[in-house]
TrEMBL record, chain A:
The lineage of its organism: Bacteria, Pseudomonadati, Pseudomonadota, Betaproteobacteria, Rhodocyclales. This is Metal ABC transporter permease. It comes from Uliginosibacterium paludis. Pfam families: ABC-3 (PF00950). Belongs to the ABC-3 integral membrane protein family. It is a multi-pass membrane protein. The chain crosses the membrane at residues 25-45, 57-76, 82-100, 107-125, 145-165, 186-204, 210-227, 234-255, 261-280. It is found in: Cell membrane; Membrane.
Automatic annotation (TrEMBL), chain B:
Belongs to the ABC transporter superfamily. It comes from the Bacteria. Residues 5-233 form the ABC transporter domain. This is ABC transporter ATP-binding protein. Pfam families: ABC_tran. The keyword Glycosyltransferase does not apply. PANTHER family: IRON TRANSPORT SYSTEM ATP-BINDING PROTEIN HI_0361-RELATED, METAL TRANSPORT SYSTEM ATP-BINDING PROTEIN TM_0124-RELATED.
Amino acid sequence: MSVSMTGMFDLAVGPFIEFGFMRRALVACLALALCSGPMGVLLVLRRMSLVGDAMAHALLPGAAVGFMFAGFSLGAMSAGSFVAAMLVALGAGAVVRLTPQREDASFAAFYLIALAAGVMIISLHGSSVDLMHVLFGAILAVDDAALLLVACVASVVLAVLALIYRPLVVECCDPEFLRALGGRGGLYHLLFLGLLVATLVSGFQALGTLMGVGLMMLPAVSARFWARSVGGMASVAALMAFVSGYAGLLGSYYADLPSGPAIVLVAGGFYLFSLVLGRHEGILGSRMRRHLHKES
Amino acid sequence: MSNAITLENVTVAYRRHPALHHLSGAFASGSLSAVVGPNGAGKSSLLNAITGAVPLSGGRITLAPELRETVAYLPQRSAIDRQFPLRVDELVQLGAWRQSGAFRGVTRALREAAAEALARVGLEGFGARLIGELSAGQFQRLLFARLLLQDARLILLDEPFNAVDERTVRDMLMLVQRWHGEGRTVIAVLHDLAQVRAHFPQALLLAREPIAWGETRTVLGADNLGRARMLSMAWDEAAPMCGRAA
């Protein structure tokens, strides 16, 4: 290996060899990417891109209540945020069933209430540092317990997603068909929201409630420019999310940047790149291929 | 002949206004019927009531026991998200939902049956395309292929030939005829009266209330059609509550 190659290798891998916290952060990114990618793709396909954001805000009061009772305990805050976000999901779902209100409108209403309640609780009982931590996470402070939680949640989310994949896809692309067959579309929708909340909760220690959505949505939106099947998009999204995590961590290490925003900004860079050069319907990518066509 | 579907005094109302008003009668087992009538006559509501998608405001619908598990329904302006990145063969394979269900695997036999259904509607070799790449006519053919795979004893079609080219209509009508020949019960909501006269032995003329039901030739007589037009009445906000026994 030449000197410059060795140098590159050291730059790219060195921090992860040297520091445990970087290693744990990287593994957390891998686990998060594996479940966030597919979840984000399904959210986009279900036209629920903004619901992820709404749910992320809805975690806040739960995390705050957990913080109030147990201090900075990951378990308590995670449990609290899971409950709070599920309440918002169920509340919005109930409104959709009982009134002609649309789902996005009811999600907006409920998450805003939850967000205000969360900010209120935190400002009454904590400092603004805690608030920042909840909103934006601290991936470099991920300890073994947090890592275990992220890995477990990611595994469960992926397994359940694989199990309910078919009804989920059908419920999304042809709901009337599923209903005519007596399939319980509502049940799968609810399960899916549960998985969404679980994913967001698992990302919350590492990336915070807000940045976690970035790692979920940006790669998912970008993936559509590169893959045509649901499976392909999920793979691209997971890969992109992981590379974003890796590059973001390196960037934050060398340039002394906050890691969460660095990771999400790399994902944002991928998005802009895909938007312009994406193979399928990218602004320039598809123009460059326009003159190519097959015989039949 | 036994009845596939028996309707007793069926009423479907949206915000208390009846879309379908006191309909009684029966679709014979193995019959091929067209449901016709002016816009807003309750044709789609009737199909939705049969599938159970809309609740009845009154009356009762009874399906013959052997049909209950095997109803295939092709909705109007299919609610399928055509931008969804689903492949043509994947969509057709959903027709075998009763075998594969939500969780079981797609067997080789099922894959072959799906390919055969595609071939029968003239979409051979289209399996690997995305559903968004098909034209309106091809897409309707695709939905018929899925119906083929569903292998249902009762088939409900809501305006299956809207915005579809002539040749596709002809091909799909041949499938409908074959279903009829196989003894399946087929009910189609249609607009084209000439088509109904040519291909559908039975007809139900609706204008919220049933105008006529029976042999197509008799049902589609001039006096009945005139009455139907008259009866496709305006939505009257001040209409009194209906006093007829439910």
